[in-house]
Amino acid sequence: MKDTAELKNHVYDIVGALHSVHDELGPGINEYCYQEALAMELSDRGIPFERGKVFHPRYKGHPMNAEYRIDFLCKGDVIVECKAVSVLTSTHRAQLFNYMRLLKMPCGIIVNFYPKFATIERYFYDTANREILTSDGNPFQSR
Q: Among 66, 76, 80, 86, which is disulfide-ready with 72 (CB 3.0 to 4.6 Å)?
């Protein structure tokens, strides 16, 4: 696993791209338009990513047929989930948290492009304790 400073730099680079997309397109359009623009922005910035990455969870080491698709995997260690909804809910966050846990990914970002000012939340996954941490290092508490 990468060190914390490197992970924070990855997140910083990606958040910059997210802000750029929202600044250019503005609020309230279709989620897929934002995703397409984000792919372009990440490419322009030279940030490596996979879009629509499919994965299969494992049960006791065995791959399952169930299939999940994450919006973006950036720099090999940051999951980015894009939304365009009036309000982010616990269901939206749970989707990101489950992906982080199942893939044992250290970082996750959920962005809501819908409001006038994009909402961007950053989370970290503590594999040792199997818990989600907020960007300030505290365990996530549902609101």
A: 80
Give φ, ψ of 27 to 5 degrees.
-85, 160
Determine how many CB atoms are found less than 10 A away from the CB of residue 51: 16
Decide if 79 contacts 73 (C-beta within 8 A): yes
pLDDT per position as a tens digit, 38-80: 999 999 999 999 999 999 999 999 999 999 999 999 999 999 9
pTM > 0.70: yes or no: yes
* Structure tokens given for 98: 């489950």
Is residue 81 within 8 A of residue 30, CB to CB? The reply is no
Contact 90, 143 (CB under 8 A): yes
